[in-house]
What we know:
Elements: E1 4-7, H1 14-21, E2 25-30, E3 35-40, E4 43-48, H2 55-63, H3 69-99
Antiparallel strand pairs: 1-2, 2-3, 3-4
Helix pairs in contact: 1-2
Amino acid sequence: xxxxxxxxxxxxxxxxxxKEIDERYEVFRNRKLHRFEIHANGVLQIxxxxxxxxARTIRLARETRLENMRALISRIDRQNAVLDxxxxxxxxxxxxxxxx
Length: 100
């Protein structure tokens, strides 16, 4: 894969800190998609949504670990419920204002 450039070191030592989370983690710069990626055993694990490697990358790697799956799904479900409620309230408001 010629479009992947392995990153072995960086200003904030993120590559080393990621290894503390999972020793299999390797960081690549995908030149084709213009993003950083975290791979384990040659398989993409995380497409980093930030322009640079920093503490947010570490937090993302910790949050998305399999052991944290239940908490992550619960957080997504809560956020979806909030969005559904907002959508429902907006629809009711539209209906009520259309009747007047």
